């Protein structure tokens, strides 16, 4: 009898995990809070920005609530990062809930032996997301609700996507707030901000600002790697940096 109940318990646990794993791609976005409850201020230690980045890197469409377009809230998931008590190590866990507060997914605990708070929390968060790659999540497109004044002819939901440009070779920049790039085998994070983008070196535990890109009437310009460039995005979202005194630099977009 004990063997029967043990087998039943394991089966139920595996079934629950399987269902959660399959259901994550059925949602179209994840909302990350501005502040986690175990910290004293918004985006402390850059954990909220990093959480958005790790979700985006693993196939999720991520937003802060203030950035979220006009959508059905129940079409998305709501993320939380919690601190798990530990005497020696800093431990962090990622939890996803639906719009009704029901837990949909609970990730593995990430732990760090770092002693400095910032490094410890960032290291633990990174490790908490390691298992997400195996989930192979690819969320569907975000469906944006039209305004009530929309005509019947256009009554269908719009897909939240970049506006196409006339030049087939040049494209507008990525619409997502966090976008992964690589250059010379190093990882970079391109963060969308008002009026342009910030570029960070993401190859280490800490995000290091490497440059800024601004949109002007003549296109994108930026000071990156301590050098001024004319910038443009290709259709595949690759970022090309151009200076007349050197060969163009291409940062490769990572889906």
Number of strands: 17
* Low-pLDDT residue intervals, each spanning 5 or more residues: 4-22, 150-169
Please state the second-level CATH architecture of the largest domain: 3-Layer(aba) Sandwich
> Which term fits the overall shape?
globular
N to C succession of SSEs: HEHEEEEEHEEEEEEEEEEE
Number of domains: 2
- In which range does the helix fraction lie? 10-25%
Strand order of the largest sheet: 10-11-12-13-14-15-16-17
> How many alpha or pi helices?
3
Helix/strand class: alpha+beta
CATH topology of the largest domain: Rossmann fold
> How widely separated are the two ends?
50 Å
> pLDDT average, as an integer?
80
Radius of gyration: 21 Å
Query: What percent strand?
Result: 35-45%
CATH class of the largest domain: Alpha Beta
Biggest sheet statistics: 8 strands, antiparallel, barrel
Provide structural commentary:
The chain has two domains: 27-161, Rossmann fold (3-Layer(aba) Sandwich); 170-254, Lipocalin, CATH 2.40.128.50. The protein is 18% helix and 36% strand. The protein has three helices and 17 strands. The chain has helices at 2-23, 47-57, 117-128; strands at 30-32, 62-64, 77-84, 90-97, 103-106, 110-112, 143-144, 158-159, 170-171, 178-183, 186-193, 196-201, 208-216, 219-224, 227-234, 239-243, 246-254. The strands form three sheets. The chain has an eight-stranded antiparallel barrel with strand order 10-11-12-13-14-15-16-17. Strand 15 and strand 16 (239-243) form a beta hairpin. The chain is globular and about 55 Å long.
